[in-house]
Amino acid sequence: MRRWKRRWSSLENRKKVLNLLGLATRAGKTASGEFMTEKAIKSGKAYLVIVSEEASDNTKKMFENSCAYYKVPVYQFGMKEELGHAMGKEMRASLAVLDSGFAKALREKLDD
Fold first, then answer.
1. pLDDT of residue 8
2. What does the radius of gyration of the chain's CA atoms come to, in whole angstroms?
3. pLDDT, tens digit, for every residue of 67-98?
4. Rounded to whole angstroms, what are the CA distances from 100 to 1, 22, 44, 54, 104?
5. Distances from the Cα of 55 to the Cαs of 29, 41, 108, in angstroms?
6. Which H, E and C letters describe 4-35, residue by residue?
7. Which residues have a Cβ under 8 Å from the Cβ of 80 and sit 6 or more positions away?
8. Per-residue pLDDT, 9
9. What angle do CA 73, 75, 80 make, to 5 degrees?
10. Model pTM score
């Protein structure tokens, strides 16, 4: 019984993260795509970076290194299609959250 409860909780958090991403996108507080995400990190506007679990190893490594250098938290979450669908766009391998409030809320859900 407890296993089911934990699984359900994990599914709920996953859904909440995707909903928050959609809300942040509608508010204009995300940058998606490899180039725009990298630009946001380097300009200091990114508060959180999410890279798809399906992204290539090279892409994951590049974002991990640049986020470590610029001290931006980076998470691997979701499939490309899920991230794109949550943002109302096509497949997305990476995105940056440009608002501290959205970033804090997403970090809480992603850490659970």
1. 47
2. 14
3. 999 999 999 999 999 999 999 999 999 999 99
4. 37, 16, 12, 26, 6
5. 22, 18, 23
6. HHHHHHHHHHHHHHHHHHHHHHHCCCEEECHH
7. 52, 54, 55, 91, 92, 93
8. 58
9. 135
10. 0.89
